[in-house]
């Protein structure tokens, strides 16, 4: 379906039957044996071929994606570059070899008791990785996204459950990627909700990756709980991404702070898991007016699917029940605007560090100023009549700390889309206690000009979120060695793991220890001569 | 209860109520805040004090343990040394600093999009670690065991659910450890099955460690599945630990092979999770006779609890239904023997590499030779009348490959205790296929004189088990940097993690990424000057 018109496009894609899913998983498992046995260098070369294939098909790919997502050429080309960059980063990870975490303890017959020779390194999980694609990144978190790239890098075959928001694109991407793989069965693709159930319950599936809603993640967890074996489930779910503006931030550029917030909030029509949904601010009229003005200058756009749009309306209604409207953005459709959703996102090209720039998505448009009336908040301004599935309009609400604390957890629940709640505090010493009571998030952000002012809340923030940000905005997740994109529940199902960055590969690995093992049968990474020159710890010393 | 007499000893230990468990967990959570904030060096010093305290109380501790477990002075002193050694190893891990996995990517404004400064390191999980103690290692896998040591090292407070097999010892060990902690609440102790339920469902518990049966692990997993948040569960469960004797092994010392097997099988009355329960051998009369003779020369002893003894009887009966008895050991009680269970275990002293020596536990006794009659197998010879809860007698059965393959999974189920099944193969090329169909194990062992002979089955073994052993025996788990004590389900609930060795600490850690964070607020491990000199990856380079 085209989100701009609400019309179906192309032929319907049939849903996969249970038999089809089983055949696809079993073919992947068989192909996975040879892939698992391939050297890291061979796997790296294949990943680079996949990156090349994606870039070579970028013209076809962005058009197919735009038809089903309405995300626009600039954003989509950038996202293809980011996806290719992820494959390249994992090729680099494989060549480096540190991902196997090689550890060698030589035999020590002088110890009591004597110690045999023990050598340990990571190996691919013994089975197929199931991946659930996300709606909001049709490349970077979908068929050729980070879960697929990291699982293939680890040495596992992958079967993706396509997102129903872009089924045609999913088939096209799979075809492009398969051309670069030594066996097409290494990347399976299944369609339909039932197919997802068959996938996670197939005995050959060894782990599952997922990016989506808390509700969706819980449903998959329940299906996994029905298995006899409790396979790992790496879900990246919902996150409200609190931002704390400390009093010293008022000494800085307040207008820039307000426009940075509005830009991060409305990037890609707010359809980012790192979108800042909760802003704690000093009770300062100038700042709050600046925020209202900045939000009023933003523009909405079509959301990805009717389900996401409905969820946004529900979330806005929940906020409207507990807080007062502060400002809303413009309705792109009603304004006759042509700014596609997310068009402000900078293309990332093919760099391995590709990522979405934060704060760069301020759409043009005149400030409407002031707060809209409470009664108008949940309904009218949300959906433009002339667009297919209805444009979403940015909506920001405001309340005070006592009201917020009294309406938890409702007011801290994620509203997926360009909506946020501004919470005014009088006494900064109470902010830490309220942060303690929030659910886990992917990110937590501080704005301040004086680091000392943040000392008290830093321990709270690092328990609350997987990434903490100083004087920045949470949208924009750099693909690099140090990135951690995860966090305590409900931000993720497994707080120790990330779905973005080099260490995402560790989700699909498990160690094997070799005791008194003959040199000729050891993996190259564990042989005395270290022929691959991988980083190792030997007898306790790195 | 004293396993030697079956009589209750001391005053009954009351079970913890729900209110008591909540108070203990909440006190641990509060004390955990300061512990989490303590430097790695300060935590290391505390761990070494705990090691000193355990060794200083060894005289009292082994006596208390012997009363409840009948494991004997030599084994128990050795195990106290091993436990102290684990605390010392984790002190070393903390001072090394590699456990935080520090990664720094400096800002790169020249990239498209520009990359901010991102620095990542592991932090303690935000909450209390719940630990379920095991029966069979009253020190090394109990209140002061590896789970507790690694969780305290990580920076988490711990609440242990005592094993009902040694409740008095558990209280004594907790008292000894607490004297060395900065706050006694950092190590809570609860008693009773209901207390375990309250513990895993308490909202302040962030992760759970467990060593025990598959059935017990599944019960805990179900309780965790009822939580709103899916906390990590690290269970080390059942394992049949297959051993493959390849044809070339017949060129070696067959008698030593047979006695090594019998020794590993009967070590500690077979009450080891790494006990070799399944032995694939060429259909060779000399080898099989040697195995029968070696087993007949072993002696049984009292098991830890009546429940474990009953489980052993059931397991032996299951084997007797599907296979033929090959040999049994002597009944220590009927023979009037005084060899305490596991007395052959070498004391490990205080070395960090302390471990149980494999193959050193052959009790004396005349070989009875030959196979006992099938009808006598399950019942009579199992329990000596004059001992308290009944001595277990080693029992080994034999069958061929076709019968074995036809009775899976029954014949590959773990029988906790000194029982094993010998499977004779005619065609070595079929061994790999049968190994493919086994459940996951902690270990898999190969005996051969020619490494080339094992090439075909190595890929199968490394998918099947977390540790592979060459010409050795699986009992004996060295505490060192490279150890991996885990494996695919049902060996463990989380194949990527180990419960023994330096990397066991990673179970209780999760990364936090700091983006554009001020130097003054960064942890020392991530500051530019690297004042703690921890191993790091900076801009992709180690």
Automatic annotation (TrEMBL), chains A, B:
Gene3D superfamilies: Aldehyde Dehydrogenase, Chain A, domain 1, Aldehyde Dehydrogenase, Chain A, domain 2. InterPro entries: Ald_DH/histidinol_DH (IPR016161), Ald_DH_C (IPR016163), Ald_DH_N (IPR016162), Aldehyde_DH_dom (IPR015590), Aldehyde_DH_Superfamily (IPR050740), ALDH_KGSADH (IPR044151). It holds the Pfam family Aldedh. The keyword Transferase does not apply. Residues 2-306 form the Aldehyde dehydrogenase domain. One of its GO terms (molecular function) is oxidoreductase activity, acting on the aldehyde or oxo group of donors, NAD or NADP as acceptor. Keywords: Oxidoreductase. SUPFAM superfamilies: ALDH-like. The keyword Oxidoreductase applies. This is Aldehyde dehydrogenase domain-containing protein. It comes from Acrocarpospora phusangensis.
């Amino acid at each position: 379906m085209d989100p701009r018109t609400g019309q179906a496009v192309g032929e319907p894609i049939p849903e996969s039957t249970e038999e089809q899913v089983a055949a696809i998983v079993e073919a992947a498992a068989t192909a996975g044996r040879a892939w698992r046995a391939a050297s890291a260098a061979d796997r790296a070369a294949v990943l680079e071929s996949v990156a090349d294939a994606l870039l070579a098909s970028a013209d076809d790919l962005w058009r197919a994606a735009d038809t089903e997502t309405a995300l626009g050429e600039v954003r989509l080309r950038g996202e293809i570059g980011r996806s290719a960059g992820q494959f390249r980063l994992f090729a680099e990870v494989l060549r480096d070899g540190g991902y196997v975490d090689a550890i060698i303890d030589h035999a020590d017959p002088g110890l009591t008791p004597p110690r045999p020779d023990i050598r340990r390194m990571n190996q691919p999980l013994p089975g197929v990785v199931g991946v659930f694609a996300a709606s909001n990144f049709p490349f970077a978190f979908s068929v050729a996204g980070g879960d697929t790239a990291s699982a293939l890098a680890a040495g596992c075959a992958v079967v993706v459950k396509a997102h129903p928001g872009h089924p045609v694109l999913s088939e096209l991407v799979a075809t492009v990627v398969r051309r670069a793989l030594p066996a097409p069965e290494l990347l399976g693709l299944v369609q339909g909700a039932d197919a997802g159930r068959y996938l996670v319950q197939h005995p050959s599936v060894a782990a599952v990756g997922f990016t989506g809603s808390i509700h969706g993640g819980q449903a998959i967890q329940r299906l996994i709980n029905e298995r006899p074996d409790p396979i790992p489930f790496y879900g990246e779910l919902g996150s409200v991404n609190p931002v704390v503006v400390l009093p010293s931030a008022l000494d800085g550029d307040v207008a820039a702070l307000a426009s940075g917030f509005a830009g991060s909030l409305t990037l890609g029509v707010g359809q980012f898991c790192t979108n800042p949904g909760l802003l704690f601010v000093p009770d300062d009229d100038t700042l709050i007016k600046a925020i209202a003005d900045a939000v009023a200058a933003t523009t909405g756009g079509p959301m990805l699917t009717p389900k996401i749009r409905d969820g946004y309306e529900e979330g806005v209604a929940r906020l409207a029940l507990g807080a007062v409207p502060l400002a809303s953005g413009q309705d792109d459709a009603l304004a006759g605007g042509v700014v596609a959703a997310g068009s402000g996102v900078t293309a990332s090209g093919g760099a391995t560090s590709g990522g979405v720039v934060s704060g760069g998505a301020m759409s043009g448009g005149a400030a409407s100023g002031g707060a809209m009336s409470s009664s108008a908040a949940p309904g009218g301004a949300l959906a433009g009549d002339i667009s297919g599935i209805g444009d979403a309009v940015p909506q920001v609400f405001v309340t005070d700390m006592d009201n917020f604390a009294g309406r938890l957890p409702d007011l801290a629940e994620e509203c997926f889309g360009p909506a946020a709640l501004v919470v005014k505090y009088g006494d900064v010493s109470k902010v830490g206690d309220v942060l303690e009571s929030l659910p886990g998030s992917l990110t937590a952000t501080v704005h301040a000009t004086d680091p000392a002012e943040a000392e008290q809340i830093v321990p709270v923030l690092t328990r609350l979120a997987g990434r903490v940000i100083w004087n920045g905005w949470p949208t924009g997740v750099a693909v690099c060695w140090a990135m951690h994109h995860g966090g305590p529940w409900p931000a993720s199902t497994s707080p120790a793991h990330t779905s973005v960055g080099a260490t995402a590969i560790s989700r699909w690995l498990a160690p094997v220890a070799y005791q008194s093992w003959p040199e000729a049968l050891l993996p190259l990474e564990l042989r005395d001569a270290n022929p691959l020159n991988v980083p190792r710890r030997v007898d306790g010393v790195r």
